Amino acid sequence: MKQKLRQILDTALGDIQGAVSKEALENVRVRFLGKKGELTAILRGMGALSPEERPAMGQLANEVRAKIENALDEAASNMERRAFEARIARETIDVTMPGVRMATGRKHPLNIVLDELCDIFVGMGFSIAEGPEVELDYYNFEALNIPKNHPARDTQDTFYVNDNIVLRTQTSGMQVRTMEKQKPPIRMIAPGRVFRSDAVDANHSPVFHQIEGLVVDKGITMGDLKGTLEIFAKRLYGEDTRVRFRPHHFPFTEPSAEMDMMCFKCQGEGCRLCKGEGWIEILGCGMVHPRVLRTCGIDPDVYSGFAFGIGLERIVMRRYKLDDMRLLFENDARFLSQF
Amino acid sequence: MKLPYKWLQEYTDVRQDPKSYAARMTMTGSKVEGWESPSDEIKNVVVGRVLSVRKHPHADKLVVCDVDVGDKTLQICTGAPNIRENALVPVALDGAVLPGGHRIETTAMRGELSQGMMCSFAELGLTQNDVPYGDPDGLLFLPEGTPGQDVCPLFGLDDVIFDFEITPNRPDCLSVIGLARESAASFGTPLRLHTPAVHKASGNIADLLSVEIDAPDLCPRYSAAMVRNIKIEPSPQWMRERLRNAGVRPINNIVDITNYVMLEYGQPMHAFDYACIEQNRIIVRRSRPDEVVTTLDGQQRRVASETLLITDPVKAVGIAGVMGGENSEITENTQMVVFESATFSGPSVRVASRRIGMRTEASGRFEKGLDCENTMPALLRACELVEMLGAGEVIGGVIDAYPNPKQPRVLPFEPDKMRALIGADIPDADMVSSLESLGFTVENGRVTVPSWRDDAEGMADLAEEAARMYGYDRIEPTLLSGATTIGGLNDWQKFEHALRAACISAGYMECVTLSFLGPKAFDRLLLPQDSPLRTAVVIQNPLGEDQSLMRTTPLHSMLEVTARNYNLRTPAMKAFELSTTYTPAVRDGRADMSVLPEENRILTLMSYGGGDFYALKGAAEAILDMVAVHGLEVLPCKDNPTYHPGRCGVMTVRGRNIGVIGQIHPQCAQNYGIGTEVYMAEIDMKKLFALRDTEKAYRPLPKYPAVTRDLAVVVHEDVTVLELEKAISAAAGEHLESIALFDVYRGSQVPAGRKSVAFSLAFRCFDRTLTDAEVDKAMSDALHALEKEYQAVLRA
Questions:
Q1: Which of residues 222-251 of A touch B (CB under 8 A)?
Q2: Is A301's pLDDT higher than 80?
Q3: The domain spanning residue B138 has which CATH number?
Q4: Per-residue b/e over B124-133, b at no fewer than 16 CB within 10 Å?
Q5: B17 touches chain A (CB under 8 A)
Q6: Do B375 and B507 belong to one domain?
Q7: Is the model's pLDDT at A215 over the cut of 90?
Q8: pLDDT confidence of residue B324
Q9: pLDDT for the residue A156
Q10: Chain B: residue whose CA lies nearest to A220
Q11: What CATH number does the domain containing B760 carry?
């Protein structure tokens, strides 16, 4: 009987090893362990054994049974694993094939940079003001110390609606509108669309954008102007940005200045980009003219302030290395999708 | 303003290299835009003497010359007809460079060695005006020079010319003397001014001429001098060189003198023929109605009324400050010349020059407001030059009509206020010396402003003078201190940001377009003649008709964007713009431009090439949802002319009209050259802003399952899905959670003119599971409502 059990075990293990499917394993189980199976038959035949032989044989038969069951389980799990591995292998795809592209929206580059600029000033306690694009001559010029027939009007080719209404040529009128409504301390920026009768070319557009800034309080100095705008330049262009302030003239600021940034290409040596100057003009600024303060009902003997105006397009063009301003207003999908 | 360095050096000893000079001047406020030396373009061109000329053995039109160039004799071939022995000529040596980058090399001309090139004046970049004696068709014969000597200094080409950007507040710096003063102050060198003097005047001008100013408000000062026995000829080389280097073409001695004085003193001068002045009287007066003046350029110009004219008792001889008249032009026959040195009101000159569309060097200066005190020195300088050049005999005396002599402006000297404004501790003494170097005088706490500095009106102006000479770069940058301000975006600005972000996340690309359109755009948009959108803000001086109006609708710009991309064969595009439209007030059916127009903010959505009406509507729904505007309903709209009448709807939220959505009318799309379906929505942002839910509270998640039932009914074609949904909502009870349309069917299964509409209804109770009976009841209530209101038939 012992012999027989060994034989059953060997045969069963051999069959299990040779089984290639779950069905084959099931057949093995039925053949040996099933109700009519070979091992079951042996166990049934135990009654014929002597009481002395019975425990040892019983133990042996149980061991054989356990071994067969283990082998069956192991084979089944191996088989499952192999099937899984085969499935995984089957499911392999070419990950280098292109993705199914979803249509994505984009922010216009002008607004990407504008938002960045606004963030910088908002972080310094500035609020944002908005005002009309079709503007009274008074706010665009007169209140800014630019009377009718003043030569400073030449530098800004104005679209006129009538003698009193213009398309604003600058956002500076927002200085006046703000000071009329709000008493110091004032820290505001006013981004917006401005208009000048320049024909469209690579560097000009009849519509472009400016960001006006205004700070009015007691004791504001040119040092504050420099400090604030230097921070702005460093936030926008990086900590190692170098700027300089150079005297200039605006009718509504006194003293006035332009802020230049050291040319990032030649580091001040002079190159084609900066037209040999070593510096690139970034913005105009100055201390608010006492007459403008007075016009707005603010006493220049008590308060002082500074103002600045930044051209958005030029910053955007520099940022993205655009060589033609028209790209910004043509809205070619191939262009817009790059931002 | 072009400034020749050598001319400047006559007035002050500034001898920096050009780069250092330009850098310092820029930092003290006179911005140098660039500099150049004409000699940079000319290399290795020397004086040569033609030793011999012989026929070229192989060419009839060429000769072979031996030319002495100092250290050697070269053989050079030339075809110049005026070649002659012993002539001094410019010789471009082997390796020479001429203007325009032309390189000259030793070569063989028809087999004969030619070791360079003899040059004409044009080849050196000169004009007949620079060398009146030069033969335009042949070699330039030099009046003097030593063989081997560089030719550039012979023509003043070795100068350095700086180009200054002069701001309109500083017309005094449009002159050599003005810039010399700035240079001297910037470098701390003394300014050497020259007092012009005439030595041999004879006669008395008062016997020959009188000047009356009828309009002293427009002509504060009119000074005049006279010269007789005029000899018109080219001016001397030094003057021609300076004029040319300053960018002015030399013409003849009298014209050159007026230009020279204008460049040197900044005072425009006019010279005219005394013989043309009737009755020897000059009258400065306003123009009469419809007065016509023939200007120097031969044009008949009808001047605006109130234009200031220079006249005699009979006729106008010039438009003050703009241009002289043809009738008084200096000619070869001119015997006696009147020099006019006057000041005119800036705005008046500006208006006059604008009206006749003519801007001259003189008018550009007068517009900025010139110094009345400058007319006399300039006039004397002109007379001095006449004498120096031998151009004529100066008549004794001057006429100086100056009814109200200018009083110098005196300001308080307030160093503490100046320091406080600048934010730098500049000592009083430094401020005083800066101001004094610029021509201000500081005495007893008072600053006297020089006559040429009308721009200096108060403490802030004096602070600028002190600060720019001290150096803006030395002012320590400081951080803002003082009262805290609360910065940030207001609710509207945050809403606009959120709306933009929502459009982007819906897959739309942001566009930025110009604000203009033209009247033809309204036709392309199929707007009827009486459409209110045709009433727009009109620009008086537009760039063109198609940009002559401020847009009243965003559709035109967006359709142009669509057309551009469609024509570039971009197969599909989804775009949006947050744009402004401008709606004027209307009075008597016309735009009332006595008040500013209303500026509306509009969100425009556009889609073509992918998706249909419902895709765009779905996007609009999602975008509104993202900015917390709920309850969008779109109602059919058949009468919007720009849209397809069967595919257009009015967008409403809680009964308020917020915009339009639909397919652009195919005829309109065709007008823009677009051959595909274009879908567009225009949404009023201010209305959207007002309708958004500002309070957001969490809605608990349901614990009990929903019961879903389908309902399909057959209704008449005209019944809209929205009507059915509303009826179901009203009838199906409080547990109805949602209605989802899932099918609309027309065809053989339903009668003609009818459609089957199928909804999936979800019911849910928050605190228990609904029973079948409750849901059955709700479903049958819904069906009954549809049967009753819309004659719906349950579809089996």
A1: 222-224, 226-228, 230-231, 244-249, 251
A2: yes
A3: 2.40.50.140
A4: bebeebbbee
A5: no
A6: no
A7: yes
A8: 83
A9: 66
A10: B421
A11: 3.30.70.380
Per the structure, the complete domain to which residue B762 belongs is given by 707-794
pLDDT over 90 (residue A50): no
Across the interface, of B422, B542, B599, the residue whose CB is closest to A134 is B599
Listed by number, the residues of chain B in 448-467 with a beta carbon closer than 8 Å to a beta carbon of chain A are 458-461, 463-464, 467
Asked if the Cβ–Cβ distance from A222 to B422 is below 8 Å, we say yes
Residue B386 sits in the same domain as residue B447: no
Contacts of A287 in chain B (CB under 8 A): 421, 460, 463
Tell if the CB–CB gap between B565 and A154 is shorter than 8 Å.
no
Asked whether residue B442 is assigned to any structural domain, the reply reads yes
Of B345, B378, B401, which residue constitutes the final position of a domain? Answer: B401
pLDDT value of residue B330: 87
CB A279 within 8 A of CB A244: yes
Nearest residue in B to A333, CA atom: B565
Vertex B793, ends B789 and B796: CA angle to 5°? 150
When scoring A254, A256, A260, A338 by the number of chain B Cβ atoms within 10 A, the one with the most, hence best to mutate, is A254
**pLDDT score of B581:** 97
For chain B, the domain total comes to 6
CA dist., res. B157 & res. B37, Å (int): 7
- Specify if B195 maps to a domain: no
B728-733's contacts with Cβ under 8 Å and 24+ in sequence apart are B728/B759, B728/B761, B728/B782, B728/B785, B728/B786, B730/B785, B731/B781, B731/B782, B731/B784, B731/B785, B731/B786, B732/B761, B732/B763, B732/B778, B732/B779, B732/B781, B732/B782, B733/B777, B733/B778, B733/B781
The pLDDT, as a whole number, for residue A287 is 97
A51 touches chain B (CB under 8 A): no
Report DSSP letters for B229-267, one per residue. Answer: S----PPPHHHHHHHHHTT-----HHHHHHHHHHHHHS-
pLDDT in tens, A192-203: 999 999 888 888
A181 part of contact set with chain B, CB < 8 Å: no
Answer whether A260 touches B (CB < 8 Å).
no
Q: Are residues B212 and B243 in the same domain?
A: yes
Q: Is residue B277 included in any domain, yes or no? A: yes
Same domain, B524 and B597: yes
pTM of the entire predicted model: 0.86
- Amino acid found at B271: A
B702 found inside a domain: no
Domain containing residue B431: CATH number: 3.30.56.10
Residue A294's pLDDT is 95
How far apart, in whole angstroms, are the C-alpha atoms of residue A304 and residue A309? Answer: 17
Average confidence (pLDDT) per 10 residues, chain B, 796 residues: 96 94 95 91 93 91 93 92 92 92 91 93 90 90 92 92 94 97 96 93 93 95 96 92 93 94 96 92 92 84 87 91 85 92 93 86 92 96 96 94 94 96 96 96 96 95 96 94 83 97 97 96 96 94 94 97 96 96 91 94 96 94 95 94 96 96 97 96 97 89 92 94 94 94 91 94 92 94 94 88
Same domain, B761 and B664: no
- Per-domain residue ranges of chain A: 2-90, 109-336
**Which residue, chain included where needed, has tokens 């972080």?**
A123
pLDDT at position B611 is 87
CATH H-level superfamily of A109-336: Bira Bifunctional Protein; Domain 2 (3.30.930.10)
Predicted local distance difference test score (pLDDT) of residue A155: 64
Q: How many CB atoms lie within 10 A of CB B750?
A: 15
